[in-house]
C-alpha cells in the first residue's frame, strides 16, 4: 500500500441529509440514496480500514481518466460494494470536506457518517489479471481496468478540447494525465499485442466480465474532425475482435460526436454494439458555457442531431448520452434553482428518448484539477429526483440500458433503477 492516510483529527458530524431525503422520497431505494450521497460527498478510508485492505484480494485504484478530490494518486480501494450488488465508485476526499468514512468496525468494512455506521460494505474483489504484465512489460491493469463485470479501455491522455482553454469546465483529464504519466508511468496508447494479450488473460477468469467500455479524450485531427479518433478506436476494437471473433460483442464506445460516415465505419468494421457521446449538460446556453470546446467545434444542436442519427445505425436504445449532473447548476451562469435545472434536463432527455437515445448521469465531483474546482455539487434531493426522472423516461419509451446498467457500469444512479423493471 502506498497510501499515506492522515490521522483522524477532524471533528466529523453526520449530515442528516440522507435520512431527510429518504423521508421525502420513501419509494426510493435506501442503498441507492446511500450510493448517491457517498458520491456527492466522497469517502475517506480510515487507517483502521486501510490496515484491513489486502492488495492480494481487493481491487485498488488503477490509472483512470479523472483524478480525485484528495488530489493524490493513492492506491486506496477502487470502490465499494453494497450487499444488494450496488457499486459505489469512490472519490477519495480529504477529511476537512466532511466525506463519509470507510472504517473497520466489528470485523467488517463499514460506511460511517459522523459516528454512525450507515451500512456495511465490501470492497471490489481484485481481478485475477491485476498485478500481471504483458510480454512487453506493460502492467495489464494499465491496458484494461476492471469494473465488477466490465473491462474498461480508458486511455489516459490529452483531450484536444483543452487547447486554447476550451476544455469542459468540470474536467480534470489533462491535469490528471500529466500526474499519472509522471508518477505511474502510464502510457497514452497501447499496442494491439498488449491489448490482445491482456484481454486473453482477463477473460481466463470465468464468468466475471460481460462487457467492454472504451473512452479517452477527444482527438479532433483528420481530414474530417474526429477521423483520427475513430481510426484509433477501430484499431482497438478490431484487436478485441481478434480475441472474440464472430461479429458483435457487448461493448460501449464513449466517443466524440461522430458523423454518419464515421459511425457506419465503427458499426461495419468492428464488433461494437453501442455508442455514447456525452452532452454533459442539457440546455444550449449551459452547454456553451460548460463545454466551450464542444460548443465551438460541433455545437449543441448538431451534437444532438448526431446522436439521433446514430440510432439509425446502432439501433434504438443502443445510443446514449451522459450528463455530469450538477455542473448545470454551477455558478455564476448555471441554473439558479434545482427545479429549473431538473425541468430542462428531463424535458431534453424525453425529447432524445422519443428518438431512441437514452440519457444517464453521473454525480458531478468538483475536482481540484478542473476549472470548477471551488464549486459545490447539487443536493441529494436533486440527484434522487433526477435518477427517478431519467429512469421513468426510459421505462416510458421502452429503452434498455444494458451497456450502462448497475452490473456493467455501476456509476449511474438512474440506471441502477433499471433492475426494478
Ligand atoms: S470532452 Fe470534455 S469532458 Fe471529455 S475529456 Fe475532453 S474536456 Fe474532458
Core attributes:
421 residues, alpha/beta, TIM Barrel, 2 domains, 7-stranded mixed β-sheet, 6-stranded mixed β-sheet, 14 helices, 13 strands, 15% strand, disordered N terminus, binds iron/sulfur cluster
Overview of this structure, please?
By secondary structure, this protein is α/β, with parallel strands linked by helices. The protein has two domains: 17-123, no CATH class; 156-189 and 210-420, Aldolase class I (TIM Barrel, Alpha-Beta Barrel), CATH 3.20.20.70. Helix content is 34%, strand content 15%. The chain is built from 14 helices and 13 strands. Strands 7-8-9-10-11-12-13 form a seven-stranded mixed beta sheet. Strand 7 (145-147) and strand 8 form a beta hairpin. The chain is globular. The site of iron/sulfur cluster has 9 residues, from loops.
Structure at a glance:
This protein has 421 residues and is α/β, with parallel strands linked by helices. The protein has 14 helices and 13 strands.
Itemize the secondary structure elements and their pairings.
Elements: H1 17-24, H2 30-41, E1 43-45, H3 47-50, E2 79-81, E3 87-89, E4 100-105, E5 108-113, E6 116-123, H4 140-143, E7 145-147, E8 150-154, H5 173-184, H6 192-202, E9 211-215, H7 227-243, E10 251-254, H8 260-269, E11 275-276, H9 284-290, H10 292-297, H11 300-314, E12 319-325, H12 338-354, E13 357-363, H13 380-396, H14 413-416
Parallel strand pairs: 1-4, 8-9, 9-10, 10-11, 11-12, 12-13
Antiparallel strand pairs: 2-3, 2-6, 4-5, 5-6, 7-8
Helix pairs in contact: 6-7, 7-8, 8-11, 12-13
The structure holds iron/sulfur cluster (SF4).
Amino acid at each position: 500500500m502506498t497510501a499515506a492516510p492522515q490521522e483522524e483529527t477532524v471533528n466529523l458530524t453526520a449530515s442528516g441529509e440522507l435520512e431527510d431525503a429518504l423521508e421525502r422520497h420513501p419509494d426510493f431505494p435506501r442503498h441507492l440514496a446511500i450510493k448517491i450521497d457517498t458520491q456527492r460527498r466522497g469517502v475517506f478510508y480510515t487507517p483502521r480500514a486501510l490496515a484491513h485492505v489486502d492488495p492480494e484480494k481487493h481491487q485498488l485504484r488503477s490509472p483512470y481518466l479523472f483524478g480525485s478530490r484528495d488530489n493524490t494518486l493513492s492506491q486506496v480501494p477502487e470502490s465499494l460494494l453494497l450487499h444488494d450488488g450496488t457499486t459505489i465508485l469512490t472519490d477519495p476526499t480529504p477529511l476537512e470536506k466532511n466525506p463519509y468514512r470507510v472504517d473497520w468496525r466489528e470485523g467488517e468494512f463499514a460506511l460511517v457518517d459522523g459516528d454512525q455506521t450507515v451500512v456495511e460494505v465490501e470492497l471490489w474483489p481484485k481481478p485475477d489479471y491485476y498485478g500481471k504484465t504483458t510480454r512487453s512489460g506493460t502492467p495489464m491493469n494499465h491496458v484494461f481496468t476492471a469494473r465488477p463485470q466490465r473491462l474498461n479501455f480508458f486511455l489516459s491522455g490529452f483531450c484536444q478540447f483543452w487547447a486554447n482553454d476550451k476544455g469542459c469546465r468540470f474536467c480534470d483529464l489533462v491535469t490528471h494525465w500529466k500526474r499519472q504519466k509522471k508518477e505511474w508511468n502510464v502510457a497514452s496508447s497501447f499496442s494491439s499485442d498488449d491489448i490482445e494479450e491482456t484481454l486473453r488473460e482477463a477473460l481466463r477468469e470465468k464468468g466475471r466480465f460481460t462487457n467492454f467500455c472504451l473512452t479517452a479524450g477527444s482527438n479532433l485531427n483528420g481530414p474530417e474532425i474526429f477521423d483520427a479518433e475513430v481510426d484509433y478506436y477501430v484499431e482497438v476494437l478490431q484487436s478485441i475482435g481478434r480475441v472474440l471473433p464472430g461479429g458483435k460483442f457487448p461493448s460501449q464506445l464513449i466517443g466524440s460526436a461522430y458523423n454518419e460516415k464515421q459511425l457506419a465505419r465503427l458499426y461495419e468494421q468492428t464488433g461494437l454494439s453501442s455508442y455514447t457521446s456525452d452532452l454533459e449538460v442539457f440546455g444550449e446556453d449551459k452547454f456553451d458555457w460548460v463545454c466551450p470546446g464542444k460548443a465551438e467545434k460541433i455545437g449543441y444542436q448538431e451534437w444532438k442531431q448526431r446522436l439521433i442519427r446514430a440510432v439509425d445505425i446502432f439501433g434504438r436504445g443502443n445510443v446514449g448520452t451522459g450528463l455530469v449532473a450538477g455542473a448545470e447548476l454551477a455558478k455564476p451562469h448555471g441554473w439558479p434553482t434545482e427545479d429549473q435545472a431538473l425541468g430542462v434536463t428531463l424535458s431534453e432527455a424525453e425529447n432524445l428518448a422519443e428518438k431512441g437515445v437514452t440519457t444517464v448521469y453521473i454525480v458531478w465531483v468538483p475536482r481540484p484539477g478542473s476549472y470548477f474546482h471551488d464549486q459545490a455539487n447539487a443536493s441529494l434531493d436533486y440527484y434522487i429526483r433526477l435518477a427517478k426522472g431519467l429512469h421513468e423516461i426510459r421505462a416510458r419509451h421502452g429503452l434498455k440500458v444494458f451497456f450502462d446498467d448497475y452490473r456493467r457500469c455501476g456509476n449511474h444512479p438512474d440506471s441502477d433503477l433499471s433492475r426494478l423493471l
